[in-house]
Amino acid sequence: MPELDLPPLPSPAEIQVGLHWLDLLGVGAFAMSGALLGVRKRFDLFGVIVLGCVTAVGGGAIRDTLTGQTPPLFLRDETYLWVALFGAALAFSFGERLARFERAMSVFDTVGLGLFAASGALGAIKIGLGPLGVVFAGMLSGVGGGIVRDLIANEVPEVMYRREQLYATAAAAGAGIVWLLHTRQAQWHLGTLEIQLLGAATVMLLRWISRRGWVKLPVRRLPEG
């Protein structure tokens, strides 16, 4: 039987570089989504850029503060801040055109959500938080920027009512998977990178399922009058 000439698997360093680029894509998508909200609200250039940058790096800043990693990553590696600034400026300049690519931006947004939630959970594990603390830190890492964005724009945070598309719930589930896999790390011979990828993949899968309309969170309605 002839041997298959398969390409070599990427090394851990190459995978880490790939994750870094995906992380930056997520930051850019977060920045553009926040900036587009500012454009719709008729903010000026400064307001749009501030809203975009807060959306992009706010969750990571909350994550780093909760896990004791100061100063936050976007100040230690200004690449994140430059990407956020570029994404916000792009949305201000080409807002109408970018709105047509909302589906593609949503993909990057989901990737960023998954990676941020997983990295936030790993950071919480490093400082010894319990399962609930890990889930909370991971979820807040993913959705924190969006919450601050909506509060600045005088909106009810979308994570509180967007039941049709799991968002905060997906981030929390991904963080929970990270904690669960960490407790079995030695038994299942998992590395930190594999745990992060599996946690992020959980978030992306749940987002995809909810977009198909297969899962919705229940809403309790009280009788009027």
UniProtKB/TrEMBL annotation:
Q: Which UniProt keywords apply?
A: Cell membrane, Membrane, Transmembrane, Transmembrane helix
InterPro entries per the record?
Gly_transporter
- Record has Amino-acid biosynthesis as a keyword: no
Bilayer disposition of the protein? Multi-pass membrane protein
Question: Membrane-crossing residues?
Answer: 20-38, 45-63, 79-95, 107-125, 131-152, 164-182, 188-209
Principal localization? membrane
| Database matches in Pfam families | Gly_transporter
Subcellular location(s): the record lists: Cell membrane
Q: Where is the Glycine transporter domain?
A: 21-94, 107-182
Membrane keyword on record: yes
Organism domain of life: Bacteria
Question: Per the similarity annotation, which family is this?
Answer: Belongs to the UPF0126 family.
Supply the name of the protein: Trimeric intracellular cation channel family protein
